[in-house]
Amino acid sequence: MSDRFAAQRRALIERIRERGIGELEILRAFDLVPRHEFLPQAVHHRAYEDTPLPIGFGQTASQPSLQALYIQLLKLSPSDKVLEIGTGSGFQTSVLASLVSNVYSVERLRPLSLSARESLDRLRASNVALLVGDGTIGWARYAPYDAILVAAGSPSIPEPLVEQLAVGGRMLIPVGTREGQKLQMIVKTASGYNVRDVKECTFVPLVGRFGWAESTLTER
Ligand code: SAH
User: Fold this and answer.
1) In this predicted model, what pLDDT tens digit does every residue of 2-25 receive, in sequence order?
2) 218 is a domain residue
3) Is 137 within a domain?
4) Is the pLDDT of residue 98 over 90?
5) Looking at ligand 1, which atom is closest to the CA of residue 136?
6) Ligand 1: which of 148, 164, 204, 214 to mutate, judged by most atoms within 8 Å of the beta carbon?
7) Which one of 33, 96, 130, 220 is at 20 to 30 Å from 16 when CA atoms are compared?
8) According to the model, what pLDDT value does residue 181 have?
9) How much of the chain, in percent, has pLDDT values that exceed 70?
10) What is the CATH number of the domain that holds 176?
11) From CA 124, how far away is CA 79, in angstroms rounded?
């Protein structure tokens, strides 16, 4: 791997650390995965800024420090099986793959999923399965999951995702309006689930059967 971005990447890791991500394993994972490899050429020069960046089709790669916060809050262990909704660029998918045993990731836009697959293959991530489809219905085939990360904002918590969590499993999902959401942490229990608000955030909409209808996007 060419390391012309090494200094910028180190600065990003420092920024993530300043934002309260202290776990070395997580910082190391962000150091291992070259974010520019997942982004369109036009934004390579900004790849190591702690900011969302456009990846085409009206979508964005999420802010790295927020992705790191997701991972820290979910308390992932190496043996975990993780479901990600909204593969997007595949960058977070790749970070997850370096931390847990298996990552399953669903993306509704085929071109993004294909491009993520190419980047993941280039980096030889062999423990990642990608699916093109509506992630609001989850991916029942490999359930239950120890953790679920939803990278798009939903009007409510999609029931199928709660169903596909293992007892003791954790899920992070932005819930709210199209303009702004609260990041919510869901913990599945033997009898149901607990919900707690983590922080305000703004994500692109989660579009699907248990998310926003496609028509609400085009009306605007
Ligand atoms: N983690 C990604 C975030 C991409 S933005 C990254 O950092 O690159 C969120 C993604 O969720 C977009 O690519 C969008 O197309 C996708 N998405 C929206 N609704 C979805 C749904 N119902 N199922 C799967 N993916 C969805």
Assistant:
1) 589 999 999 999 999 999 999 999
2) no
3) yes
4) yes
5) 22
6) 204
7) 130
8) 98
9) 97
10) 3.40.50.150
11) 19
How far apart are alpha carbons 4 and 37 in whole angstroms? 12
Nearest Cα neighbor of 81 from 65, 64, 105 is 105
Q: Which residues of 187-212 are buried (b: 16+ CB within 10 A; e: fewer)?
A: ebeeeebeeeeeeebebbbbbbebbb
Total count of residues recorded for the chain: 220
Is residue 203 within 8 Å of residue 151, measured between CB atoms? yes
Convert the pLDDT of each residue in 33-65 to its tens digit. 999 999 999 999 999 999 999 999 999 999 999
Identify which of 178, 185, 184, 180 has the alpha carbon closest to the alpha carbon of residue 214.
178
Q: Within 6 Å (CB) of ligand 1, which residues are found?
A: 55, 59-62, 85-86, 88-89, 91-92, 106-109, 112, 134-136, 151-152, 204, 206-208, 211
Q: Residue 47 is part of which domain span?
A: 3-211
Q: Does residue 219 form part of some domain?
A: no
Q: Which amino acid is at 24?
A: L
